[in-house]
Amino acid sequence: MVPYPPKSGALIRAYNLLEALAQRHPVDLVAFVQEPLMRALFHDRQQGIAECHRELTRLCREVKFVPIERLVRPFGKARTALESLVWGSGYMADWLQSPAAVNAISGLAAAKSYAVAHFDTISLARYRELLPAVPATLGHHNVESHLLQRRAGTESNLMKRLYFRQEASRLAAYERKQVPRFAANIVCSELDAQRLREAVPGARTETVPNGVDCSYFLPTGGAQQPDSMIFVGTLDWYPNTAALLYLLREIWPRLLQVRPRPTLHIVGANAPQEVQRAARTLAGVTLHGFVPDVRPLIDSAAIYVCPIRDGGGTKLKILEACAMHKCIVATAVACEGINVEHGVSVELAETPQAFVQSLVRLLDSPGTRAAMGRAARALVESEYSFDIIGSRFVQVLERVAVQPATGPQSLPQGAYPSRDIV
Question: Rounded to the nearest 10 degrees, how much is the dihedral formed by the CA atoms of 324, 330, 336, 342?
């Protein structure tokens, strides 16, 4: 996807890793334009695309944007899902098939010589064949087959559950086919590395954790609002939608019974109708939508709440909250892959009653909240700053660049060529 602006999820990771790479090597970028996200982030689509191209050209030597052709056609998402179900490799494997992308990548490959090619998601893996002589890496923001298996396990609708199981099975087969073709599969945590190796025995993995811009995510100095909480995330991403509905339907009514006037601020683009309806019916809940700068709202909240029970990878929202010195109440799933410690840098809760008990206790304990916020900030400064993470990503690509295109079992240290990267 177009890795700009770095305001949500995968875009934050992709932009910061791209920036680190571009500081050391010439980089060419081919990126898909995700129309719903573009509309959510910019009032005017064309101006938004122009701004993205301008900003990314400051980092990259050449920037090419291509449409997601399968989705921009009439009934594109439904047609792609049906086609993938009947004769494809699965939706995640098929949705970014694009003649325009083939032309863009092939044109660059014919005109230039590259030291390494990085493909940022399993959905791009089929384009590996366009650069057969170039060593390549594959990014995994999640282990997607594991994510789908987990979603199938939590889905209550029978037809959806069967669909997600089939999608998980097809995608697992696709991962087994594609993952060995890359010299390094870059995952976000050691847990995801383990999951990928279980799905694809012998997979060559490198862990580059998600990170946070510690110089940007700092407290802004505003006063905290008493009894206030915040939830942040792209609201049409299934794990966030499910988490928010769980918060609004199961946790918040219980909290209202024991706390007279708590407030909850929900920040994020593309809130589904069921989220909007639930938010309107509950006292103390404000749905903000997308905001250009989330820091003041995070800063003013007493507690950052994240009851995610699904999904994979590591959650950038947790790292950002840590950097903002926030007291965080979250599930264990929300903190997967992050070295938080229960009761020190985060408060873990799994049931609605446990969430309510933790929220009430911490709302009444400003000293405890402050101590947890300091511990959370110290953790991200030492392990998850993008200054550290970006350098680790560059080192992986540099090591891959001196290997044969098929890649060895391990990536040795050494001198690296100052050649181009796509």
Answer: 90
4-14 pLDDT, tens digit each: 988 877 889 99
At residue 313, the pLDDT reads 63
φ/ψ (deg, to 5) at 138:
-125, 130
pLDDT band at 412 (very low <50, low <70, confident <90, very high): very low
Tell me the residue ranges of DSSP E strands in 208-279: 228-232, 263-267
According to the model, what pLDDT value does residue 413 have?
42
ω before 99 within 30° of 0 (cis)? no
Question: What is the arrangement of strands in the sheet containing 327-330, beginning at the earlier edge strand?
Answer: 285-289, 263-267, 228-232, 303-306, 327-330, 347-348
What mean pLDDT do residues 338-360 have?
97
Query: What's the confidence (pLDDT) of residue 240?
Result: 92
Q: Please, which residues have CB within 8 angstroms of residue 342's CB and are 6 or more apart in sequence?
A: 348
Please spell the DSSP secondary structure of 85-147, one letter per residue.
Answer: HHHSS-HHHHTT--HHHHHHHHHHHHH--EEEEEE-SGGGGGGGGGSTTS-EEEEESS-HHHH
